Amino acid sequence: MAELVLDTSVRGAGLVVLSDGGEVVGFRAVAGGASSLHESLADLLKSAPARVSSVLVARGPGSYIGVRSGLAAGLGFAQGRGIRIHLVGSLRVVAETVDPVDARVLVLRSAGRGGILGQPFVPSGLGWAEDGPSQLLSGGRDASSFWLGAAVIIDPDAVVPAGAEPRRLRPIRGLEQALARLAVAAEGPGVPYDQVSADYAIRVGAER
Amino acid sequence: MRLLAIETSCDETAAAVIESDWTLHSSVVASQAQAHARYGGVVPELAARMHLERLGGVVDQALEPIRGGLRGVDGIAVTRGPGLVGCLAVGVSYAQGLALATGLPLVGVNHMTGHVLAAKIAEPDLEPPFVALVVSGGHTDLIHYRADDDVVLMGATRDDAAGEAFDKVARMLGLAYPGGPEIDRAAGSGNPGRYRLPRPLLPDFNFSFSGLKTAVLYLLRGLDPTDPQVVADVAAGFRLAVVETLVAQLEAAAESAGVSQVVVAGGVASNALLRETVRERFAKVARVVIPAPSLCTDNAAMIGAAGLVRSRMRGFDREALDADPGLRAYAA
Ligand SMILES: [Zn+2]
């Protein structure tokens, strides 16, 4: 029994992970493009022929084409095998690279073109739980109001604009380990094949 | 050989199952037209999102009549281009996931070749050579289909595609989107002879509909566009001008190519006046093949047909396959 995990929400890159009980059995980097995703997936399944019993896909927010390609590939695979598909927010994956601390955190990730994706999380059990929707902040000015009052910021891409001095948490595990952890935590019947959808971050306007 | 076919290049989410003897087991189309109607055209991001949400259900439905479901299928055909980048990515990635899960081989298909080869489902004994008029929202093409691996583009539109012109004129007349069926409905009670509109005939089998569109704009300046009879008469005059232009160029192309078979395909080929006029004009000189309207508008059956031809010709795409939004129309 193993879980196949896909996260292609980062612009031009992604990860395909095979997980068994939360342990990474194998992973491949996805360089970008549908054929590259296919190659990474095929290669990983060949090298680690564990029986895949469920699929977990990062549903964004993130790269427009990447998120959709990953979700579609995950859906096709799950439907082709008749197995469950689970979805997880892409910023939750980033949160899971850090062990929970006793505080509300904001996860920030560069969205390209000066934009910032952000989402608040609170500690929950051994990991994190969403404390609000994901947002697309169009620039530093908006971001500063967004993280006001948050104790900690996880900032893997170093996107914090000048002037802000949040307390940063350092990742203690890689994205592939975070994905493997989340795959184990994914429970229940999963998402019906006709209800797979991406997370579209709420746009926070440029004007104030 | 039995193929599951998937189409997501624009605003229809579609799946079909087709047999190598051209028997169509199923063809399911979930149209997004209503969702895009209020924006007056296809919104790419919304289209990609809806494909993702609908593809699973549409494929399940297409597989319903197949004993064993996916196990009763020998390969998967999917549209790889041309089309909207996000929409194609959803279809191609989904098909790849499905192929990896099942071990089924995959074949990538040119959407425009699909439109032409829908004619094989309509009349399986149709063999090249033939001339095809392909008219849709994005294309107005005349092609010489000499053989499956030898397709020559004879002419195309220099500006608006016929379907696009229908959409724009419909907007001028206060009619809804998509414009083709709306203009058809309005034209039904109109007099096509009341307002004479130009027939823009370009050399070399090319088309230009922007002048005709401008002529409608000028014509409407002197008229009351809220008068239903005016709308009906202008719609009828416009429709006739488009149809006569298309048919005149098709006649010239068929004569120049020296073929005795013509095919009309693409979404606009579901237009009743175009179908009738082509049949009438070619009654004594050529065999006319026009697929049923449901095979003219975007669907996956036509992708299955093109997948059968392509896999026969070149085998399956065993290696990875990329979506190609800018894929040249009719390229193998
Ligand atoms: Zn089309």
Secondary-structure blueprint:
The complex is a heterodimer of chains A (about 210) and B (about 325).
Chain A: E1 2-7, E2 14-20, E3 23-30, H1 34-47, E4 52-58, H2 64-81, E5 84-88, H3 90-95, E6 105-112, E7 115-124, E8 127-130, E9 135-137, H4 140-146, E10 152-154, E11 167-169, H5 175-185, E12 202-204
Parallel strand pairs in A: 1-4, 4-5, 6-10, 9-12, 10-11
Antiparallel strand pairs in A: 1-2, 2-3, 6-7, 7-8, 7-9
Chain B: E1 2-7, E2 12-19, E3 24-31, H1 33-37, H2 44-63, E4 75-81, H3 85-102, E5 106-110, H4 111-122, E6 130-135, E7 140-147, E8 150-156, H5 162-172, H6 179-187, H7 210-221, H8 228-257, E9 261-265, H9 272-282, E10 287-289, H10 293-296, H11 301-314
Parallel strand pairs in B: 1-4, 4-5, 6-9, 9-10
Antiparallel strand pairs in B: 1-2, 2-3, 6-7, 7-8
Helix pairs in contact in B: 2-3, 4-11, 5-6, 5-7, 5-8, 6-8, 8-9
The structure holds zinc ion (ZN).
General description of the model:
The complex is a heterodimer of chains A (208) and B (332). By secondary structure, chain A is α/β, with parallel strands linked by helices. Helix content of chain A is 27%, strand content 32%. In chain A, strands 6, 7, 8, 9, 10, 11 and 12 form a 7-stranded mixed sheet that branches. In chain A, strands 3-2-1-4-5 form a 5-stranded mixed sheet, with helices on both faces. The longest helix of chain A is centred in the middle third of the chain and has 18 residues, at 64-81. Chain A is globular. Chain A starts with a strand and ends with a strand. The mean pLDDT of chain A is 83. Chain B has 332 residues and is an alpha/beta fold. Chain B has 11 helices and 10 strands. Chain B has helices at 33-37, 44-63, 85-102, 111-122, 162-172, 179-187, 210-221, 228-257, 272-282, 293-296, 301-314; strands spanning 2-7, 12-19, 24-31, 75-81, 106-110, 130-135, 140-147, 150-156, 261-265, 287-289. In chain B, the strands form 2 sheets. A 5-stranded mixed sheet of chain B has the order 3-2-1-4-5, sandwiched between helices. A 5-stranded mixed sheet of chain B has the order 8-7-6-9-10, with helices on both faces. In chain B, α4 (111-122) crosses α11 (301-314), α5 (162-172) packs across α6 and α6 packs across α8 (228-257). The longest helix of chain B has 30 residues, at 228-257. The interface between A and B is medium-sized, with 34 and 33 residues. The site of zinc ion has 4 residues of chain B, from α4. Zinc ion (ZN) binds next to α4 of chain B.
